[in-house]
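Retro notes
What went well: the complex prediction finally ran end to end.
Inputs used:
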Amino acid sequence: MAVKSTSPLAGLLRKSPFKPIQQHMKVVVKCAKLLPELFESVYNKNQEGVASLARQINDRETEADTIKSEFRQNMPNTLLLPVDRKDLLSLIKEQDSIADGVEKIGQILESRDMQIPAAIKESFDELLQSTVQICLKAQEMIEELDELVHVGFSGREHDRVTAMIKVVRREEHSIDHILRTVNRTLFMTEKELDPVSVMFWYKIIEEVGDISDHAENMADRLLLFLSK
Amino acid sequence: MEIIAAYGTIFMILAIIFGLYMTWGVGANDLANAMGTSVGAGAVTIKQAIGIAIVFEFAGAVLAGGNVTKTIRKGIIDPTNIVATPEILVYGMLAALLAAGVWLMIASSRGWPVSTTHSIVGALIGFAIVGIGPDAVNWGKVGKIVASWVISPAIGGTIAFLLVMSTRKLIFNSENPLRSAKKYAPFYVFLVGFVISLVTMFKGLKHLHIDMTGGQSIFLAIVFGGITSAIGWFFIRKVKEDPEADREFHFASVEKVFTPMMLFTACSMAFAHGSNDVANGIGPLAAVISIVSSGGEVMQKSEMPIWILIVGGTGIVVGLITLGYKVMLTVGTKITELTPSRGFCAELAAASTVVLASRTGLPVSTTHILIGSVLGVGLARGIGALDLRVVLNIIISWIVTLPAGAIMAMVFFFFLKGVFG
């Protein structure tokens, strides 16, 4: 008699969706962390270095994509989850958008030999550092997800994560401030620069700025988990 | 009457073989769900699980299994109309055993989540309809049994929900979860021993000629709870903080406190399983033995001999040793999402509910109650993801199993009737 594992118990208990979300975020942050290095190569006019980093970014983005699609395949709508299924799906989408943004920046820098306008370098560097920082803060928040499930999204853990969410939102606010400075500085000097390059710098600044928006959206999703 | 006199021994041997076959199936498959969680959590090894099963299946069957056996044996079918032809009831019981055993085997090889309880109840009804007549089925009792299949998982779920909430309040949300865990763990282990022994003893040991007052039962249950609690404390106090594991998951050390506690729920699950599921196999067996040994008395007033329980227990243990341990290992590896603290709550809830149902004589499904209990944990937002398709599959399996068991029992009944006349 061939006994299959007929355990309905095994069928009932699916793999926790929070683990792949955390794993995905880990890869996304690895991707975002390459940004300062990428621009370092741009400053040094090391186009080979830019190409190599752009490839690394590309690989991580692909890795993140794989986790994301596998995650989606394992989310049938018959699941009983401690949080809303749609909120989980949009959380991973926001995370993925961060990697997508970094990839786009890499692609621009790989195809065009760009030179940083001297006037914006300082504030742009600040923007990069803050962006990496907000990604790390967002990751910290995501790392608390399995603990949150363990305590049913309540009590001390709830308060801890609420504080973390506040930090991310504050960071996003200060990044907005930096963005205004960078854009304004670029505008003041744009007449002296090559117009096409200026267009692309605006584009790059916009892409970097979007990263913090996605991090903030992640924080908003998490807030929904907490308030369910 | 002549048929019973002529073939009595053959009937008894057939009943024992079919009874063993069915209980073997129960041990090969069903028990894995009940104990797989503790194996998966690493609380007990597979060898220890087998040892626990041997001791506690028997204990459950002997101490708390009598009422369910009685229901299966004489609660569902009213044999008043066949007093003159007792062999009909013998064929019927044999057919029911065989039908349930075969159905269980087919279902297991296909991976359907069927319950032995539902198979045997369906088979008994099926035989009674064709063998005696639809009036011979005690429909009121059947209605109660079917209702209990819905109600019992809900009760298990509610208890599990409350237990999870209490661990959160007392342990996980406290300032120092590890210290709180060590403080309250002996209390939870006490609950295992106390609840199971209280439900078992409270006016429940009459068949062993032990008649205790309510006060005596409560006192003894406290003693049993105290003993389990002391054994639990012996394991729990050794649990050390693991800062390395805690960095990855803050509650890793706390979960380690719950791991040895699952040893006790493994015992209680085996006990609960013994109290309910052993009856499925030995109820019909006991009926046949009683009819044959009384020379054709269908009203079965005699008490059930203990050796029948031992046959049932043996079948289950052999099933576990030959095949069940493999299933248990598979189940164990597949349900790692159920961490020790949640597994503990779910199993304690399930075991208590099953033993309670056994006391009232209701044949329920241990597995389905455990599923209900795990859902209770899920409703407390305590589990990553539960696939509710399983619930649908279980409901379908109820709808399919009752007629399938019934039809097979009808076929086997006519076959046996044809062979023996």
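What we learned: Strands of chain A lie at 13-14, 79-80.
What to try next: split runs per interface for comparison.
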